[in-house]
Amino acid sequence: MAERNISIDSMEQHQQHSAQAGPEVPALPIIPPSAVPVLNAMSRPRGAFTLPLGQLSLTCHLDRRPITHEAALSLGLTLGDMPALLRLDASAVEILSSPLSLQRPLAGCPADVAALWLEYALLEWLEPLESALGDNMRLQGDDTGVSDDTLPIQLSLNLTDGHRQGKLSLLLSQPFAEALQPWFDETCPVAPRPCSNVIWPLQGIAGYQTLTLAELRDLAPGDVVMLDSPVINGSGLDSSAPTPPGPDNRGQASAVLVGERLMASAQTHRDGVRLLSRLHPLTQGDLAMAPPANDNDNNNNAQPQTGSTAVDRTAAGRMTADSTGLDQLPLRLVCEFGRLELSLGELRELDQGSVLPLSRPEDEAVDLVVNGRILGKGRVVKIGDGLGVQIVRLATDE
Predict the structure, then answer these.
(1) How far apart are CA 161 and CA 183, in angstroms?
(2) C-alpha pair distances (Å), 296 with each of 210, 291, 301, 336
(3) Which residue has the higher pLDDT, 145 or 121?
(4) Residue boundaries of the structural domains of the chain
């Protein structure tokens, strides 16, 4: 019996210690997976829209911040049998009820009376909305028997008549939001933020080549890799962007690469690098990553031969077989002679003829960028009518 008493005392002490440990962490909000698409669609950045109300012209702004205002009036709202809640602060109630010329504030009325009067005041909004959605919309004095937890889509609107500003919030069930979204998209179109201050890397490149891992591992200082030309219409990356003819286009071809997805032909100029075309999406995808291993170019690289895809090795035989097949993984070798960072606003202003503060070194030194990472140094050399890069240093194991 004594042992049992000790055990009970220990349990009580443990419970008291747990109670003193601190409050429990609140549960996370629950959002049904099926509600995520409409929630994201309704919450996208949108421009202001104007709605007439009697003699007033009201401007509405979607506020994407969490709903924090205190509701002076909270009403149930239904579309058919789909529930929602409408909450308004005191200023919003005053603005929306002003066409009624009431003798007492609407917020001080019983909820069912306030719902009746507000629905009457908003008839010129509700009737076209009912026609567009194909169902009846009603304001109710109670909360329609639902809680906030069952209304996952929450919208907050700032409302102004030019003199007063109020806030209202809509808490929608998933079916209500899905029915409302087409009308909302038409009335309040999506207006993506410009994000002009977002920074993107811009690279000046002298050429590139697709290799296999085995070929990369086989390279050593002194070896030469033939390069494909970075000129867009010469490399097949985008034949719709021809390089304009003229004296400015003579000399060594180069290109600029933005975010490894957009490219423009360029020419070294005394003041920097001059664009010979607009930025164009790469038709072969991400230049930093090579195409799949079954691509014809990779098959050619696996069996080097004379031409633009050949690798000149000074120490043939260094390549070893890889029984796992990893040696045949494709990768992209890009010869980069400089890089800078531009904001999205600056990128939007680039056009044919723009000059960038990039210059090719006199000794034609380049960084060897493999799958987007700098792995070594090289030097651009002339080989016949084409270009190649001679390996100076390659840190494949660092």
Answers:
(1) 22
(2) 11, 9, 9, 25
(3) 121
(4) 35-187, 199-315+325-394
Amino acid (one-letter) located at 166: G
> What Cα–Cα distance (Å) separates residue 63 from each residue in 17, 50, 88, 169?
44, 15, 14, 9
The domain 35-187 having CATH identifier 3.40.50: the answer here is no
Cα distance between residue 202 and residue 282, in whole Å: 15
The residue to which tokens 């702004």 are assigned? 61
- What span, in angstroms and rounded, lies between the C-alpha atoms of 126 and 272? 61
Strand partners, 225: 311, 389
**Using an 8 Å Cβ cutoff, are 136 and 57 in contact?**
no
Tracing tokens 């050619």 back to the chain, one arrives at 300
Tell me how far CA of residue 353 lies from CA of 98, 218, 393, in angstroms. 58, 41, 35
- The answer to pTM > 0.85 is no
pLDDT tens digit string along 214-244? 999 899 999 999 998 765 544 334 333 344 4
| Separation CA 202–CA 340 (nearest Å) | 5
Interatomic CA distance for residues 46 and 193, integer angstroms: 9
pLDDT at 136 over 90: yes
Question: Half-sphere exposure (CA, 13 Å, Cβ side) for 244?
Answer: 13
- H/E segment holding residue 112: helix 111-121
- In angstroms, the CA 298 to CA 328 distance is 9
Q: Which CATH architecture has domain 199-315+325-394?
A: Roll (2.30)
Distance CA 40, CA 44 (A): 6
Asked whether 157 and 87 are in contact (CB, 8 A), the reply is: no
One-letter amino acid identity for 394?
L
